Amino acid sequence: MQPTSQKPVLSLDPFDPEVFQRVWQRVMPDQANSPIVPQPAASPQAEPAASTEEAPCLSEASLACCPILEQQMELAHSARLAFGQIQNRLPSRAARPVRSMSFNLEQDLRRLSAAYFLIAGRRYRPTSQPAPLPVPYQLALRELYGQSRVRAAAHRAAAQTVSDPCVCQLLTDLGDEAEEHSHRIRGILEAM
């Protein structure tokens, strides 16, 4: 009879908690579900290190930007959907710049969303729907032109009301971009 080969039994003897922590930290950086409780450091610096990992305190001025950012996201979302409505109705030479402006609005929405998340710590999902555009595409472009002008004014006005310099710069940039959209729409109509 041949001896059966047995698999080696895995053991934690000798158990080295430092090696285990180092390996576990590579696998699970947040230490979730760790089978061992980390031992507190004996140094007096352990207390301040724990407090620096907390979320940074945002000023009241930054938090006051949240409703303004929500309004601006609703405007950008509605405009993006409106540009999407007209894309398929336009001649190809006009559809390309409209598609490009729609893409710009998608990026604007992401920028606003990121700013909102950094301030509020949560996501905001816009729900606004644009009004149906007129059927003749020239009238629809006219409507988009007007919306771009309103959006530019709204972004710039909102930039004047916020005290957070980063949000102010973002809204100013978005106002300039919306103004550029109105110029591009005028150019499309001039070329037709």
Describe the structure in your own words.
- The protein is an all-alpha fold.
- Helices cover 66% and strands 0% of the residues.
- α4 runs antiparallel to α5 (92-120) and α6 (137-161) packs antiparallel against α7.
- The longest helix has 29 residues, at 92-120.
- Residues 38-57 have low confidence and may be disordered.
List keywords for this structure.
192 residues; mainly alpha; 0% strand
Strand and helix map with partners:
Elements: H1 17-27, H2 46-52, H3 60-63, H4 65-87, H5 92-120, H6 137-161, H7 165-191
Helix pairs in contact: 4-5, 4-6, 5-7, 6-7
User: Structural class of the secondary structure composition?
Assistant: mainly alpha
Termini, distance in Å?
A: 94 Å
Q: How many DSSP E strands?
A: 0
Low-confidence stretches: 38-57
Tally of helical runs: 7
> What string gives the helices and strands in order?
HHHHHHH
User: What is the 3D form?
Assistant: elongated
- Estimate the helix proportion, in percent: 55-70%
The profile of the biggest β sheet is: none
Radius of gyration, Cα only, in angstroms? 28 Å
Strand content: under 5%
Average pLDDT level = 80
Short description, anyone?
This protein has 192 residues and is mainly alpha-helical.
